[in-house]
Write a structure and sequence with these properties.
Number of strands: 12
Order of helices and strands: EEEHEHEEEHEHEHEHEHHHEHH
Mean pLDDT: 94
Shape: globular
Number of helices: 11
Distance between the termini: 39 Å
Length: 332
Amino acid sequence: MERRTIGAGSLAVGAVGLGCMPMSWGYGGSGRRGEESLRTVHRALDAGSDLLDTADMYGPFTNELLLGRVLKERRADAFVSTKAGLLVGEQHIVANGRPGYVKRACDASLRRLQTDVIDLYQLHRADPEVPVEETWGAMADLVRAGKVRALGLCAVGARGARRPGARLYDHTLDQLRRVQQVFPVSAVEAELSVWSPQALEVLLPWCAARGVGFLAAMPLGNGFLTGTLTPGEGFEPDDLRARHPRFTAEMMAANQPIVAGLRRIARRHGGHVTPAQVALAWVLAQGRQVIALPGARREHRPMENAAAASLRLTPEDLAEVAGLPVARGSWD
């Protein structure tokens, strides 16, 4: 697979990685199958999708434990990215950026992942009660201690706090400027997909200008851009999409022209190409510093996703994507 670099340290990873969250958290519980999840991670590594993206809150903790079982056998094949800074309660999620907590969280992640170093350690969310510089300074100490190789920051997304008149990622850019004064940022993780392209406005250019890697989360639109979801089919209560404003039956039906456009492009590249691969190829075409992180929990998906790294979209294809309708949600 094509290799791309993350940050000034030139850490090389496959252009398509693996988002591991769906195996343990966020999607319907009935679809979680431990042994198939293990095979899915192995298939991803076999395909060159070596960036495995997880977090201590996924589960919580169970996603890291799952990956630890694979890493015990194949640590040399993997680039491990995990996150800290969020605590999961019964009915809520809260940020914790206290330096002492972050250092303890790192040690706990190392134990669960069965490794002695984390390749990329990301701040999941800044704690509003703790100056982000203090949290980042503690994370920098982990690099100096040899427990972490590089640091990353997760962007506050569309449903994060926004000031009236502010652009979507202004708050994240402010955080990046502040932490960059403490220790270099190697990567930024944020949503980027055909139906959520907002990061292209300011966030991706900020990364490109500084040699910072961009980890494209949810590049398949939480599964919608694969064309395999049926409007009105519904989701389990513990599935995040059951409360997502783009996944009501009405909005899924309204956004079908986006999937239809991806299908048209796929057909031009041959019967073996899927809408999901077109969606991933579009993400990768946005810049050499972009790494796509599609989630997967079925063992055939990593091979399909990895093949998108070899799909080259034409100017005609890119123009057609640019002309697709803007995605709608139930807030519209």
